[in-house]
Design a protein that fits this description.
Helices cover 42% and strands 18% of the residues. The chain has seven helices and eight strands; from the N terminus they run E-H-E-H-E-E-H-E-H-E-H-H-E-H-E. It has helices at residues 17-32, 45-56, 88-98, 109-123, 141-152, 158-162, 170-179; strands at 4-8, 36-39, 61-66, 81-85, 101-104, 131-134, 165-167, 187-189. The protein is globular, with a radius of gyration of 16 Å.
Length: 193
């Protein structure tokens, strides 16, 4: 059962309006499903848009932020709960502990770092919580092509690749995360709702 989803996403908005729209759509789906958000605790970029959208709709939001980033300029002030940790390693571990599933949205290297750690820990059996990509406007197409290369070159087991849930639709992605099981078949979805 998924009660909390950690979302990894950019501290910037990106160049396309579709990114902001996807964050707002994801927020709506989370609130409607009574699923709490766990995120990086920032008030800027897609992180801030996602958190603000959930808070506005009456949902619950837990932020996890390292002490060095918890200045008034960066940290979101209106969260249900704010957990302050000592460093980025502790932040990722805490987010992995708090959440029942993980979604990466468009973002930068910090987003990728958090995503890959969650997925690596899944692959290693450290947790059995599903991991997914919200592939807004094809943002992750190049990444998934690269992952195919890893499989083709025998650096990534096909079963691990197929464990990754991917969709361009927030509602479909959450549905797939709920159905996901270790080493399940691929759950790619491209229907936009």
């Amino acid at each position: 059962m998924i009660k909390r989803i950690a979302v990894f996403c950019g501290s910037r908005k990106g160049t396309k309006d579709a990114y902001e729209l996807a964050a707002k759509r994801l927020a709506k789906i989370l609130v409607e499903g009574e699923i709490e958000l766990v995120f990086g605790g920032g008030r800027v970029g897609l992180m801030g848009i996602l958190a603000d959208s959930i808070i506005t709709q009456g949902g619950k939001v837990t932020g996890v932020i390292p002490t060095g980033l918890s200045t008034r300029e960066v940290v979101h002030q209106n969260l249900t709960e704010l957990v302050t940790v000592s460093d980025m390693h502790e932040r990722k571990a805490k987010m992995l502990d708090l959440a029942d599933a993980f979604i990466a949205m468009p973002g930068g290297i910090g987003t990728m770092d958090e995503f890959f750690e969650a997925w690596t820990w899944y692959q290693l059996g450290i947790h059995e919580k599903p991991v997914g990509l919200l592939n807004v406007e094809g943002y992750f197409d190049s990444l998934t092509n690269y992952l195919h290369t890893m499989v083709d070159q025998d650096f990534l087991a096909e079963e691990h690749f197929k464990s990754l849930c991917t969709s361009d639709c927030p509602k479909a992605l959450i549905h797939k995360l709920k159905l996901s099981k270790r080493a399940s078949k691929s759950v790619w979805v491209t229907d936009s709702n």
